[in-house]
Every structure is written in C-alpha cells, then in structure tokens.
User: Fold this.
Amino acid sequence: MYDLMIIGSGPGGYEAAAYAGGMGKSVVLFEKAKIGGTCLNTGCIPTKTMLKSAHLYHEAKEGAELGITADKISFDMKALAERRTGVVSNLRSGVEGMLKRAKVVVVNAEAKILEKGKVEAGGEVYEGKNILLSTGSKPATPPIPGADSDNVVDSTGILQLDTIPESLVVIGGGVIGLEFASFFNTVGTDVTVIEMLPNIGGAIDSEMAKRLMQDMKKQGINFSMNSTVKSIDGDKVIYVNKDGEEQTVAGEKILMSTGRVPVIQELGLDEAGVVYDRNGIKCDKYGKTNVDGIWACGDVTGRCQLAHAATREGFVAVNNMFGIEDEMRYTAVPGVIYSAPEVAGVGYTEDKLKENGIAYKKSTVPMAVAGRFSVDYPNGQGQVKVLIGEEYGQILGVHMIGGPCGEIIHSAVMMVENEMTVDTIKSTIFPHPTISEALMIAISHAK
Amino acid sequence: MATPVLMPKQGNSVEECIIVAWNKKIGEEINEGEVLAEIETDKASFVVEAPASGKVLGYFFSEGELAPVLVNIAVIGNDGEGIEEFRPVIKESAAQAPSASNASTAVPVASGAIVQSSSFTTAAQDAPVVIEEAFGGVSPRAKRYAKRFNIDTSTVKGSGVNGRVIEKDVIASRYAEPKKTDLVRKMLNDGWEVRPNAKSSTIRSSDLRKGLEQSNVRKVIAQRMSESLKNHAQLTLNSSADATMLLKCRATLKKGASNPGYVNITIGDLIMYAVIKALVEFPDMNAEYINGKVYKADAVNIGFACDTDKGLLVPVIAEAEKLTLSELSGAVKERAFAAIDGTINPDYLEGGAFTVSNLGAFGIETFTPVLNAPQVGILGVCAPVLRPVREDGEVVYKDYIGLSLTIDHQVIDGAPGAKFLMQVKENIQNIDKLAGIEC
Assistant:
C-alpha cells in the first residue's frame, strides 16, 4: 500500500514524487514513455537547446561590430540534434537520480485507474492511499482537411528535422509556434505564421504581443493575422485572411501548433467516476478531483499549460493530501516566450485590468535605461512595463520584451506574489550594471 | 526550622533569571551544597545550591519561569513545616507602571543561597532589597524584545506569575501573528478587515473584506428595529378578510362615475380608512408603551410604512379619524411622494401611535411586522389570495386579503388584539357602508 501513486512523470509528476518521497512517503511513479514528460523530452528543454544555438549563430554573424569576425559560419542541424539529445539525456539522468534519492519506485508502463486506490500497470495491480494524475497534454490536431499531409509536423515531429527546410508555415501563433518561427527564421528558413486571433502569443499582454510581432516582422517573418486555415494540400496551406480573401502559402514543412489537449484517454477516469471534460480533469484549488483520494496537476487539468505551474500544482496537491494546508494561486504565474526577442510577463495584463475595471497606473521604460542593455544587446530593442494599483501602489503586473527578460521576471514574480508596494520596492537594491535595473527604474518612475 | 532558597543576585544589572530546571522533586532529600536548580540570565547560566540540608518542601516558580533576583524560589526544611510564610509577596498593582514610592515591596531576606559564580553576591550581604514590579506586568527582557520588534505587550497574554508577560510570551506572540503583505498593511489602514475564516500563514489581499458604511437613515432603522425586538414582546396574529367588497369598491371608484371627487383611491387607502375607524373603537390599540406606562393617543395619528431609496420611512397622518376617505387618500399620497422625494417635513415622521405596513403589492401572503416602538400595534396588509369558501352549501372562490397584526404583549393580550383584528376585518368587508360610497 503506497502513500501516493503518480501517473505521468512530467514536471508535475516527477517533482511531486520527489517532494512526497522527501517527506518520507512511499511513492510509485508510472511512466509509459520517458521520465521527464513533454517538458524535458520534447518541449521546454529541447526547444531551448535549439534556440540557444540559433541565438549564438545570429550573434556570430553579427559579431563584427563587437570586434569578432569569422568566415564560413554555418548551422549544423545534425550537431544541434546531437547536443540536444545529450542535454536531454543528461537532465533526465538528473531527474532519475533525484527520484532514486527520494526512494520513489518508478514503473515504466502505461497505468490505468481500476478504482479509487487501485492502479493497474504492466499487468500488475498497485494499491495506494492517493492517486495523482499528471499525464500532461499532447498537440491538438484540428480537423483541417489535408492535415495528414506528409509536410505537416507537430511540435514533437519538428524536432526530428535534420535539415533546415527552405520554407515553414506555422499554423497557430501561440508560444510554441512563435519559438519555432523564431528558430527557423534565424537559421535561414522562410517563415510564415498564420494566426486566427488579432494578436500573437496567446494571453500575453497585447502591447508586448504587438511589439514582438513588429520585431519578428523586421527579422523577416511573415504574419497573417485574423486568418483561418481552410485546408492543406500537400505543401500548400489554403487560408482566409483578415479581409476575407482566400490565400495560399507553400511550406516545405507545415507546423501545426494550434494548442495542446489533455491526455485523458485510457486512464480509467470513467471507471473511477472522475469528472472531466475536453479541457481536462476538473479539480479544485487544492488539486482535489471530485473523487476522494484522486488528485490532479498540470496540463491534464487544463488550468494553466506551463511546466512551472504544473510543479506548483503538484506540490499543492501533495501538501493537501498529507495534511499541510496549501492552495493554488494563479495570480503570479510567470510566462516566458523564448523567441528572439524574449518576452516575459507576470500578473495582470493591461487587457485584463481593463476588462475587470481595476484602476491602475502604468510605467513603461525602454530596457536601454539600464546601461548594461546597450552593452549586451548592441542593436536591441526592449521595454519594461509595470502595472501598479492606483489606490495602494501594489505591483499588479510586469511585462517585458527584449534582453534576458525571462531571467529578470522572477523578481517581478516575488513582487506580485507578495503583493509588494512601490514604496517598499524602492528601498531594495538592484545590482549595477545589470539589465534588471530597468525593472527598478520603471517602478521608480511610476507617478 | 525551614530555610528559604533565594534567587541569587547576578551582578548589578541582572533583575531576573530563568529557572531552567529543578534538580530535585518536591519531597526529595537534599544536602547542603547540593545543586538544587539550574538558572540562566540572558548572558550566562549558573546553579543554585541548597543553603541547608533537608527535604524540598516547595517551589514558588516552575521550570521556564523568570524569577526576580533576591526573591524566595524554594523552601527546604522538615516534614510538617509550612512554606507559606516564605512565599514571595505579590504586589497587586504590578501591572501598572511602578514608581519608587508606591511600588516597593520588601522581600524577607534569609540566609543566602550559594551560587558558583565569580560575580556572585549573596543576598545576605545585600539586605534588605527592594524589588519593583515583582510579579504581573512585563518582565524587562520581554520589554526589551518587544521594543526591538515593535510588539505591543498589552496584547500579549502572560504565562508568568500573576499573568506576568515574560520573554517567551512575546516571542510566541511575534511568531503567532500572521505575516501580512505590503498591500494588506495598506488596506488594513484603509478600513479593510481580515475575513474571520482567513487561515493562511500570510494574509493576502484576497483574505480581506470591507464592510459597507451604512447611511444614517439605515443606522436609525437598524437601531429602532433591534431595540423594538429587544424591548417589546411581539405577538403576531394572522387573519384575512373577504376582499370582495374592497376590490369591487376599488374598481368602481376607479371608474369615478358614481362617486364624484373620489379619484385614485387605492386598496391601501381603503384599508387604512378601515383601520382608522377600528382604532376609534379600540383606543387601547392606539397607544404607546414607555417605561412601564401606557400613553393613549388623543387622536388617531396613523403612520404608514413607505419604501424609499434611503430605506424605510413612516410618514404620519395626524387626526386621521377626522378625514374623509378622499381627504385621507390625498394626505397619504402627498406624504408618500414627499418621503420618496426626500423632501418630507421631519415633523410628519413623528407622533404616530399605530402603523400600517402594506406588502400586498409584492405578493406577500403573511408576515410578522415589527412594532414601530413604542407603539403597541402594527398591522401588516398582505396580497389578496383566491380562496375556496363554503357559501349556502356550495364551495365558491373569493378573494381574501391577509392581515397580520403584531401587538406588544406586554400591554395587549391575545384576545383583545384578536378582537381588534376582527373589527378591522369587519370594516374591510363592509368598506362601502363605512366610507359612505356606492360600489
């Protein structure tokens, strides 16, 4: 009888397993594929490995101004693939080691709930007091005629490319689509992004979305916004643009990045009586499903498709199942798009503040107010926007574009999560010279 | 002869020491020079040795407690000997700020305790010693800690002798206080309050709520309603009147032809007219009850509940028994409009001795009106409801209007209240004759 049985070893499942194991609980973790889930094997990590190479390639080509010139700079997809595999397997060993130290029993088999407290995997039945469902999500396949064309790949399939395609059509300008668009554009592919909504980047602050699109357009990426894909015919994508005209664009590869759907099939949810819909398994702020002893975290719940949110949701569930009061809050979940330029945000977007009628003040500064930005990003554009509560001066949201903003956003996360106000933040000291100073300056400039 | 054990004085600055441990149980034998207690100041630890051989007869402090220096902490002696004469004197006013003149207590000095310490001074050499603020109040260490972390010691519950606040109480209080975010601190200064069910270790803005300040009118209503229920024995009697004639008269008057001059007469006006006539017959109902005395009204000064944007108002029509139905209707409308507009003369909101509250328009079928204290009666008027009744052996359907009379049972008993209600019912059923109108 285990204290906890976890199905799915992504950043929701494996972190929860190690955490519960560290608490001295007996934990069994089921994984049908590789430890680490989407994030580690086919998501966050491999794509960041690719983007690192692309950034370096770009900098190498632009290095003359900084006194670095090189001939015959080329981009080797095979070498990239090798490094990517190495990084992923290294990190996976790290996770496996962590699970081992936490005395988590790992079962490499597909698992299914038989009933409350019972899970079947690899022909064996396991019993436990709690079940945590963290099976994650998979790329959605929209019902577009011709979507089964050989030219079409999803975010997993595109990782397998060992040559640089001449052209790429990205269907869906969300976070995943934008990162691949950025990568392939940098390494020389002709990229077109088709997006149904008026803004790219999903739910990010629309001002940042506009800036990002401007910047990416300058780099040569084509965008067709407010557009609906009608069909795919071999390498051709037929879509209706914002003016209602039918257009065709060809792509050696066509990336389908129209969102992700929860993995809920073959899990035994109906047998256990767990409530779910097409967005995922329903659970409350404690991570509890409608069935006592069955919990869920991560993408499979459809609450917030981010690795770090999944991890926190898993911790919250573990805490609650073992009697530690805790609850999930989404007020300060940061989001980062690792495109060139990078975009990061936390808290309310300006759009959401307007929608909810919350009175706010806005302070925006160019990132170049921090001297280090001009040093590190010679021709870079960047912006920091801080949204502040009108009445009490608390930090409601921070949105940035440019520079290493994904690495700076964490201090804004602390501010939002801890409901810090401008007056106390002003008394903190940021290191000089760093790009993070731009955040401090934006806050200090708030009227 | 029993021997008291003193808390030794540790240098000149130490005022009290924590008793870390007693090494003997009460009743246990101890030899002179044997270690009786381990004690601590905020800087060092020491032991207290027994000043005499014998049995440990009692302790005046428990482990973990702070004891002022040069105060008896224990007694050693023989079976049968008392310890009470050695109990430290507890100063009653200790909680207040002491002054040298009134807050001093002489402590009896016995043979000194012996401690192993270079800075040791025996009590015997230091006699007699005056201790301020011996018990109760706040210990100096607690004060020091409180000052450092800005803690209000008046809110700290003391666990020492006589509720004395000692350092560990202040420390506990510091950590018991939930953390607050910056935003929460600001909001708390701005009228927000922590929800009673907030339980997180850090109070966040989502744990706060803000009560809506009520208008003065609302506060007056609130006060009067709760005082009414608190001070009056309210009994509600429910009945209903055959509304056939009432509805017929209302319809006829609306047409206007047969009764010139009677325009816009409402059902409410007709009922109020019926009530006024009943009050003339039952003067006991037309009264106020104040401090054990009943004040009967000289005339029928009738109030009616009026729903306004600001809340409930009760305009009064004085000497209503002198008005015709038409005049009454006019007066009611005038007062009601003025009340709703907010332009009513405050004089018209006073002086009533009976009130009518009509919720019929909202479809209410019965309710328990709250007395407009100190009045002794209030009549609630409800919506007409179709009801089967037996008439000449047959069941027919008739409209009945609900009447809910609340009386102050301190003054009016159920039977006289019921008689009055029956009179109202009778009047409503014969409203045509009562008002002298043709229906």
Summary: Chain B touches chain A at residues 181-184, 186-187, 190, 199-200, 202, 204-205 (CB under 8 Å). The first helix of chain B runs from residue 140 to 148.
